[in-house]
Amino acid sequence: MITVSNVHKKAQMIAHRGLSSAEPENTLPAFIAAGNRSYFGIETDVHKTVDGFYVVTHDDTTKRVANQELEVARSTFAQLRELPLKDLNGKTGRIDLRIPTLDEYLDVCRRYGKVGVLELKNEYPAQDIREILQIVKKHYALENMVFISFVWENLVCLQREEPSATAQFLTEQWEDTLPEKLRRHRFGLDINYRVLTEERVKAVKEKGITLNVWTCDDPGAAKQLISWGVDQITSNRLE
Predict the structure, then answer these.
(1) Fold of 12-45+110-235
(2) GP-PDE domain spans which residues (predicted)?
(3) What are phi and psi of 102, to 5 degrees?
(4) Is 85 helix (H, G, I), strand (E, B) or coil?
Protein backbone atom coordinates (compact mmCIF):
# COMPACT_ATOMS: atom_id res chain seq x y z
CA MET A 1 0.00 0.00 0.00
CA ILE A 2 1.03 3.59 -0.55
CA THR A 3 1.25 5.72 2.56
CA VAL A 4 0.44 9.42 2.36
CA SER A 5 3.38 10.65 4.41
CA ASN A 6 3.03 14.18 5.72
CA VAL A 7 4.15 15.49 9.11
CA HIS A 8 1.02 17.63 9.22
CA LYS A 9 -1.31 14.84 8.15
CA LYS A 10 -4.67 15.09 9.86
CA ALA A 11 -6.99 13.37 7.41
CA GLN A 12 -8.55 10.03 8.34
CA MET A 13 -8.17 7.37 5.64
CA ILE A 14 -11.15 5.22 4.63
CA ALA A 15 -10.79 1.97 2.68
CA HIS A 16 -13.11 2.12 -0.34
CA ARG A 17 -15.22 -1.06 -0.53
CA GLY A 18 -12.65 -2.59 1.79
CA LEU A 19 -9.04 -2.72 0.66
CA SER A 20 -10.16 -3.19 -2.93
CA SER A 21 -6.68 -2.91 -4.42
CA ALA A 22 -5.60 -6.04 -2.54
CA GLU A 23 -8.79 -8.14 -2.52
CA PRO A 24 -12.02 -8.10 -4.57
CA GLU A 25 -14.23 -5.19 -3.57
CA ASN A 26 -16.94 -5.55 -0.93
CA THR A 27 -15.86 -9.04 0.14
CA LEU A 28 -14.93 -10.26 3.59
CA PRO A 29 -11.27 -10.65 2.53
CA ALA A 30 -11.25 -6.99 1.44
CA PHE A 31 -12.77 -5.87 4.74
CA ILE A 32 -10.33 -7.98 6.76
CA ALA A 33 -7.37 -6.66 4.74
CA ALA A 34 -8.45 -3.12 5.60
CA GLY A 35 -8.98 -4.12 9.22
CA ASN A 36 -5.40 -5.31 9.45
CA ARG A 37 -4.05 -1.94 8.33
CA SER A 38 -4.10 1.61 9.60
CA TYR A 39 -7.39 2.72 8.07
CA PHE A 40 -9.76 4.78 10.15
CA GLY A 41 -12.83 3.37 8.45
CA ILE A 42 -14.09 0.75 6.00
CA GLU A 43 -16.64 1.80 3.37
CA THR A 44 -19.22 -0.45 1.74
CA ASP A 45 -22.64 -0.39 0.02
CA VAL A 46 -25.88 -1.97 1.20
CA HIS A 47 -28.77 -3.41 -0.85
CA LYS A 48 -31.90 -5.32 0.11
CA THR A 49 -32.77 -8.68 -1.42
CA VAL A 50 -36.23 -9.68 -2.54
CA ASP A 51 -36.65 -11.81 0.60
CA GLY A 52 -35.62 -9.06 2.99
CA PHE A 53 -31.91 -9.66 3.64
CA TYR A 54 -29.39 -6.81 3.60
CA VAL A 55 -26.25 -7.58 1.61
CA VAL A 56 -23.19 -5.53 0.74
CA THR A 57 -22.31 -5.06 -2.91
CA HIS A 58 -21.97 -1.96 -5.03
CA ASP A 59 -24.00 -2.41 -8.20
CA ASP A 60 -27.68 -3.13 -8.69
CA THR A 61 -26.69 -6.33 -10.49
CA THR A 62 -23.89 -8.88 -10.13
CA LYS A 63 -22.76 -8.56 -13.77
CA ARG A 64 -19.46 -6.84 -12.99
CA VAL A 65 -18.38 -8.94 -10.01
CA ALA A 66 -19.54 -12.41 -11.10
CA ASN A 67 -19.97 -14.52 -14.21
CA GLN A 68 -23.75 -14.56 -13.80
CA GLU A 69 -25.94 -11.48 -13.83
CA LEU A 70 -28.54 -11.31 -11.08
CA GLU A 71 -30.52 -8.24 -10.08
CA VAL A 72 -29.93 -7.89 -6.35
CA ALA A 73 -33.35 -6.47 -5.48
CA ARG A 74 -35.10 -9.28 -7.39
CA SER A 75 -32.94 -12.14 -6.09
CA THR A 76 -33.10 -14.11 -2.88
CA PHE A 77 -30.24 -14.11 -0.44
CA ALA A 78 -29.64 -17.80 -1.15
CA GLN A 79 -29.30 -17.13 -4.89
CA LEU A 80 -26.81 -14.33 -4.28
CA ARG A 81 -24.86 -16.24 -1.65
CA GLU A 82 -24.32 -19.21 -3.96
CA LEU A 83 -22.82 -16.97 -6.64
CA PRO A 84 -19.00 -17.23 -6.89
CA LEU A 85 -17.40 -13.79 -7.17
CA LYS A 86 -14.45 -12.95 -9.38
CA ASP A 87 -10.98 -12.64 -7.96
CA LEU A 88 -8.77 -9.70 -9.00
CA ASN A 89 -7.58 -11.75 -11.99
CA GLY A 90 -11.16 -12.14 -13.20
CA LYS A 91 -11.35 -15.83 -12.34
CA THR A 92 -13.74 -17.54 -9.94
CA GLY A 93 -13.03 -20.47 -7.63
CA ARG A 94 -12.15 -19.02 -4.23
CA ILE A 95 -14.73 -20.25 -1.73
CA ASP A 96 -14.24 -17.16 0.45
CA LEU A 97 -15.43 -14.79 -2.28
CA ARG A 98 -19.18 -14.49 -1.77
CA ILE A 99 -21.51 -11.52 -1.31
CA PRO A 100 -21.48 -10.76 2.44
CA THR A 101 -24.40 -9.76 4.60
CA LEU A 102 -24.54 -6.41 6.35
CA ASP A 103 -24.07 -8.04 9.74
CA GLU A 104 -20.94 -9.87 8.54
CA TYR A 105 -19.44 -6.57 7.41
CA LEU A 106 -20.32 -4.97 10.75
CA ASP A 107 -18.75 -7.88 12.61
CA VAL A 108 -15.45 -7.23 10.81
CA CYS A 109 -15.60 -3.52 11.62
CA ARG A 110 -16.22 -4.36 15.27
CA ARG A 111 -13.48 -6.99 15.46
CA TYR A 112 -10.86 -4.61 14.10
CA GLY A 113 -12.15 -1.46 15.75
CA LYS A 114 -12.87 0.38 12.49
CA VAL A 115 -15.54 2.96 11.77
CA GLY A 116 -18.14 1.63 9.37
CA VAL A 117 -18.95 3.88 6.42
CA LEU A 118 -22.19 2.57 4.96
CA GLU A 119 -23.63 3.81 1.69
CA LEU A 120 -27.40 3.56 1.43
CA LYS A 121 -27.80 2.59 -2.22
CA ASN A 122 -30.83 3.79 -4.17
CA GLU A 123 -33.82 5.19 -2.28
CA TYR A 124 -35.02 3.41 0.84
CA PRO A 125 -38.43 3.57 2.52
CA ALA A 126 -38.42 4.48 6.19
CA GLN A 127 -39.04 0.87 7.27
CA ASP A 128 -35.87 -0.31 5.54
CA ILE A 129 -33.81 2.43 7.16
CA ARG A 130 -35.24 1.43 10.54
CA GLU A 131 -34.23 -2.18 9.87
CA ILE A 132 -30.71 -1.16 8.86
CA LEU A 133 -30.38 0.87 12.04
CA GLN A 134 -31.54 -2.12 14.10
CA ILE A 135 -28.92 -4.35 12.45
CA VAL A 136 -26.20 -1.78 13.13
CA LYS A 137 -27.18 -1.51 16.80
CA LYS A 138 -27.31 -5.29 17.18
CA HIS A 139 -23.96 -6.05 15.55
CA TYR A 140 -21.89 -2.94 16.22
CA ALA A 141 -22.71 0.54 17.56
CA LEU A 142 -24.37 3.58 16.05
CA GLU A 143 -21.63 5.91 17.29
CA ASN A 144 -19.08 3.94 15.25
CA MET A 145 -20.94 4.41 11.96
CA VAL A 146 -21.12 7.00 9.22
CA PHE A 147 -24.05 6.74 6.79
CA ILE A 148 -23.56 8.13 3.29
CA SER A 149 -25.93 8.43 0.33
CA PHE A 150 -26.44 10.20 -2.97
CA VAL A 151 -30.14 10.24 -2.09
CA TRP A 152 -30.80 13.28 0.11
CA GLU A 153 -34.10 11.90 1.41
CA ASN A 154 -32.34 8.77 2.73
CA LEU A 155 -30.30 10.98 5.04
CA VAL A 156 -33.31 13.05 6.07
CA CYS A 157 -35.17 9.86 6.96
CA LEU A 158 -32.12 8.46 8.75
CA GLN A 159 -31.82 11.43 11.07
CA ARG A 160 -35.58 11.52 11.60
CA GLU A 161 -35.38 7.93 12.81
CA GLU A 162 -32.13 8.38 14.71
CA PRO A 163 -31.13 12.03 15.31
CA SER A 164 -27.71 11.05 16.67
CA ALA A 165 -26.71 9.21 13.49
CA THR A 166 -23.76 10.64 11.55
CA ALA A 167 -24.67 11.30 7.91
CA GLN A 168 -22.69 12.53 4.90
CA PHE A 169 -24.23 13.60 1.60
CA LEU A 170 -22.56 11.96 -1.41
CA THR A 171 -22.18 14.07 -4.52
CA GLU A 172 -19.92 14.61 -7.50
CA GLN A 173 -21.11 18.17 -8.12
CA TRP A 174 -20.36 21.42 -6.35
CA GLU A 175 -22.93 24.13 -5.75
CA ASP A 176 -22.14 27.33 -3.85
CA THR A 177 -25.32 26.85 -1.79
CA LEU A 178 -24.22 23.38 -0.63
CA PRO A 179 -22.30 24.28 2.57
CA GLU A 180 -25.21 26.21 4.07
CA LYS A 181 -27.71 23.52 3.06
CA LEU A 182 -25.56 20.88 4.76
CA ARG A 183 -25.18 23.02 7.89
CA ARG A 184 -28.94 23.41 8.26
CA HIS A 185 -29.46 19.66 8.08
CA ARG A 186 -26.37 18.74 10.12
CA PHE A 187 -24.99 16.58 7.30
CA GLY A 188 -21.36 16.08 6.44
CA LEU A 189 -20.13 16.12 2.85
CA ASP A 190 -18.62 13.22 0.86
CA ILE A 191 -17.65 14.67 -2.52
CA ASN A 192 -15.65 13.75 -5.61
CA TYR A 193 -12.23 15.18 -4.82
CA ARG A 194 -11.72 16.38 -8.38
CA VAL A 195 -14.32 19.14 -8.04
CA LEU A 196 -12.75 20.66 -4.93
CA THR A 197 -10.60 23.76 -4.72
CA GLU A 198 -8.93 25.29 -1.70
CA GLU A 199 -11.67 27.95 -1.63
CA ARG A 200 -14.42 25.33 -1.68
CA VAL A 201 -12.80 23.36 1.13
CA LYS A 202 -12.61 26.57 3.14
CA ALA A 203 -16.30 27.30 2.49
CA VAL A 204 -17.25 23.87 3.81
CA LYS A 205 -14.99 24.01 6.86
CA GLU A 206 -16.20 27.49 7.80
CA LYS A 207 -19.66 25.97 8.30
CA GLY A 208 -18.25 23.37 10.69
CA ILE A 209 -18.98 20.51 8.27
CA THR A 210 -17.02 17.24 8.18
CA LEU A 211 -15.49 16.89 4.71
CA ASN A 212 -14.83 13.47 3.20
CA VAL A 213 -13.62 13.02 -0.40
CA TRP A 214 -13.87 10.11 -2.84
CA THR A 215 -12.12 8.25 -4.41
CA CYS A 216 -8.53 9.50 -4.33
CA ASP A 217 -5.73 7.07 -5.24
CA ASP A 218 -3.19 9.76 -6.18
CA PRO A 219 -0.67 10.47 -3.38
CA GLY A 220 0.06 13.95 -4.73
CA ALA A 221 -3.60 14.90 -4.88
CA ALA A 222 -4.13 13.44 -1.39
CA LYS A 223 -1.33 15.55 0.07
CA GLN A 224 -2.85 18.65 -1.52
CA LEU A 225 -6.27 17.82 -0.12
CA ILE A 226 -4.72 17.33 3.32
CA SER A 227 -3.01 20.71 3.08
CA TRP A 228 -6.36 22.28 2.26
CA GLY A 229 -7.88 20.76 5.39
CA VAL A 230 -10.12 17.87 4.33
CA ASP A 231 -11.09 15.61 7.22
CA GLN A 232 -11.28 12.24 5.47
CA ILE A 233 -10.03 10.63 2.26
CA THR A 234 -11.68 7.54 0.80
CA SER A 235 -9.26 5.50 -1.28
CA ASN A 236 -8.77 2.12 -2.91
CA ARG A 237 -5.05 1.96 -2.06
CA LEU A 238 -3.76 4.92 -0.07
CA GLU A 239 -3.33 4.57 3.68
Answers:
(1) TIM Barrel (3.20.20)
(2) 11-239
(3) -60, -40
(4) strand
